[in-house]
Design goal:
Helix content is 0%, strand content 32%. The chain is mainly β and 59 residues long. The protein has one domain. It has a four-stranded antiparallel beta sheet with strand order 3-2-1-4, with no helix packed on it. The N and C termini lie far apart (49 Å). The structure holds zinc ion. Zinc ion binds next to loops. The site of zinc ion (ZN) has 7 residues, from loops.
Length: 59
């Protein structure tokens, strides 16, 4: 009864800043839950968005 271990999390695209819901897979890769990510980057680079973390795009 072992299912693949994955954890649902929020992730942010490091390129465009789009936030989406993603899975953290057992190999620590981060993949979007659905294809409805508001990200049009050629290569989406998702970074796990920690709940206590705030977007720091202001410089
Ligand atoms: Zn993006």
């Amino acid at each position: 009864m072992t299912h693949e271990e994955r954890e649902k999390t929020a992730a942010v695209c490091e390129t465009c800043g789009a936030i989406c819901v993603a899975w953290i897979l057992s190999d620590e890769s981060v993949v979007p839950v659905s294809t409805t990510v508001k990200c049009e980057c050629d290569e989406t680079v998702l970074r796990v968005f920690e709940g206590t973390e705030t977007l720091a795009n202001e410089e």
